[in-house]
Amino acid sequence: MKHADLLNIADEFGAPVYVYDTEKITSQFKRLTKAFSSVPNLKLNYAAKALSNLSILRLMNSLGSGLDTVSIQEVRLGLLAGFSPEDIIYTPNGVSLEEIEEATRLGVKINIDNLSILEQFGTRHPHVPVCIRINPHVMAGGNTKISVGHIDSKFGISIHQIPHLLRIVELTKMNINGIHMHTGSDILDIEVFLYASEILFETAKHFEDLEFIDFGSGFKVPYKSGDIQTNIEELGQKLGSRFNAFCKEYGRDLTLAFEPGKFLVSEAGYFLARVNVVKQTTSTVFASVDSGFNHLIRPMLYGASHEIINISNPEGRERYYSVVGYICETDTFGSNRRISEIREGDILCFRNAGAYCFTMSSNYNSRYRPAEVMWHKGKAHLITKRETFEDIIRNQVDQAELFQPVKRKAVAK
């Protein structure tokens, strides 16, 4: 998107505000589809947790995507957005049997990641097809907090528990229709991904009636110009070829499934915030914006890097700034960044703000969550209103009758 378009959006809808470019989302979806064009049956299930706005889900549905969900609420959002139940897969972690049964009643595909629930579900619903999430014990991802396939992870059924898993399946006579893994986010080394895939293929041989194998996602996207990223084209060539060969060994064509989230929406997102104060200290120049980790927590949560551009003064002389927020604790978006000279009132643009940004926002410090705007075919469309004070207190139950204000003594003047 052009800087002028973003500035116009900030003027029209106010700052802070999230902006999503549908053209970029569409091109990423087509790129991933093309990379695996050698596979007869490919299914991309967009990971709703990355950006779950209803309008974005409708866009994904229009592209032919399925939907990967991790909560019953995401399932309901997907159905509301027009996805068919059979195009939604429900992949929770550590939820109750009751929630899984609720998803079953809604008709979506079920993915189970622990032996306890698998046995209970298989005993009660042996005829409902189930996908099994395997933990391949492979350390992959850009940060320990987003690496989910290692041996100490809470996710998935350990490959060392396959005998126990097979015993449950045999005794309950349940129908296993898919095998799934997800090793982590920001995967760069495709050889690690391919190694984990071989573990998945070996596991799949234990089940005769599979319909699909789900390889998760976690592809790394560039966070700045020239940044390294997952070579999707090379992965498509190597994994696609290996998958087709496995299908011949297996005896029939299966569906190759992925759950891309960040890959599809991260680069499409922009977060715009206005500079409140430029503050010089003894060693640092701070640019304080009208936002904080209540709106964009990733840098503080796990050290995520977002390129920051001064779109109000893009040709200005570059200086070093630490960009910080207004939350009353350490609240840093970026330290000692080279940014075009920042003036109070300027609009700063945070790149790669499409994935896990608005969805992780909160009302901390009783601040309002920002608006969301979709940029589609050259026009800005409001898709989430900025919150108001009424939104903050909407669900609070005020027990005012339980408390009386203290009567304070008058102070003589």
Concise synopsis of the structure shown:
The protein is of the alpha/beta class.
Q: Superfamily at the CATH H level of the largest domain?
A: Alanine racemase
Q: What summary fits the major beta sheet? A: 9 strands, mixed
Output mean pLDDT: 93
Number of domains: 2
Structural Rg: 24 Å
CA(first)-CA(last) distance: 61 Å
Q: Which CATH first-tier class of the largest domain would you pick?
A: Alpha Beta
In total, how many beta strands?
A: 18
Low-confidence stretches: 140-150
Beta-strand percent range = 15-25%
Q: What is the approximate shape?
A: globular
Helix content: 25-40%
CATH topology of the largest domain: TIM Barrel
Oligomeric state: single chain
In the CATH hierarchy, what is the architecture of the largest domain at level 2?
Alpha-Beta Barrel
Structural category is: alpha/beta
Total number of helices: 12
In N-to-C order, the SSE pattern is HEHEHEHEHEHEEHEHEHEHEEHEEEEEEH
How would you describe the overall organization of this protein?
- The protein is an alpha/beta fold and 413 residues long.
- It has 2 domains: 241 residues, Alanine racemase (TIM Barrel); 119 residues, Lyase, Ornithine Decarboxylase, Chain A, domain 1 (Beta Barrel).
- 30% of the residues lie in helices and 23% in strands.
- The chain is built from 12 helices and 18 strands.
- The strands form 2 sheets. Strands 1, 11, 12, 13, 14, 15, 16, 17 and 18 form a 9-stranded mixed sheet that branches. An 8-stranded parallel β-barrel has the order 2-3-4-5-6-8-9-10, surrounded by 5 helices.
- Helix 2 crosses helix 9 and helix 8 packs parallel to helix 9.
